[in-house]
# Entry
Amino acid sequence: MAGDNENLNPRAARDHGGGLDGAIASFGGTRAEWMDLSTGINPHPYQVKGLIPSDWAELPDHGAFESLTEAARRFWSVPESAAILPAPGASAVIARIPALAPQGRAQITTPTYNEHAAAFAAQGWSVQPNTPAEARVIVHPNNPDGRIWTETDANAPLTVIDESFCDVSPEASLIHLAARPGVVVLKSFGKFWGLAGLRLGFAIGQPDLIARLNDLTGPWAVSGPALRIGTRALQDVEWANATRQRLSVETDRLDDLVTAKGATIAGGTTLFRLYEVDSAADWQDRLAQAHIWSRVFPYSKTYLRLGLPPADSWSRLEAAL
# Structure
């Protein structure tokens, strides 16, 4: 992760979304004036309601965790033999997964979400992109290119399947593999439901693995408000289906808008799009002058990633392009 000094320079942390404070330091304006399209978070978040005073004032009870995990099991069709661990964001689990096995080699094909490699390296693993190893990470669909993996790719003694963006395409999910020994499937709540600030994620796998992760995360890792909101959202299948349709329509609209300005589609999902452009830095600068933040990558001079704009901001994005 970028340090505090790096965050002052939006160029230094370009392999992560967000970093809006750094963009403001470079290009001016206030947070209210900026539109952040760098993160791939649903711009139409699930509506938060129904919280009660005890959600804030009391330590979460076991029943609240059971309600959330049962809702998660139904929503994702989790195998009965697999256990579910709610956590304060998928990133909290990513940081702890390398401790589940002795140090060795971890196969992480690039380009992909870089926190997995950082987590394994921090705990003494050797990270490599293409060589079979004792551990493997597949981000499914992949960030940033949207690559879809198959069951045959889950082939290491410890396999992490990161499905943080898979809720837009549930038919592609590899959740059934959570019943296999050594497989951990990750789910993110913040992306699809648009509530990243709630900090809620899930690890799903065989009970022994999940119990060890639970020991590493400690008690009361998930807040009372997150438990209640997450349970209600996971039960709202009608909202999820309508949201998938809406995101698909808006993705087509974004593709039409950006390709009309000279970009070509390089991949993505219906929460973020990856474009090939002549100069990603120039495109980012042009958008930033209009206080629109995009995502570029240190390993490519031509990759530009954009999330979907809020409903009332399409004309602003078009003008900036």
Observations:
- Residues 1-14 have pLDDT under 50 and may be disordered.
- The chain has eleven helices and 13 strands.
- Residues 4-44+239-320 form a domain with the Aspartate Aminotransferase, domain 1 fold (CATH 3.90.1150.10).
- The first strand starts at residue 35 and ends at 36.
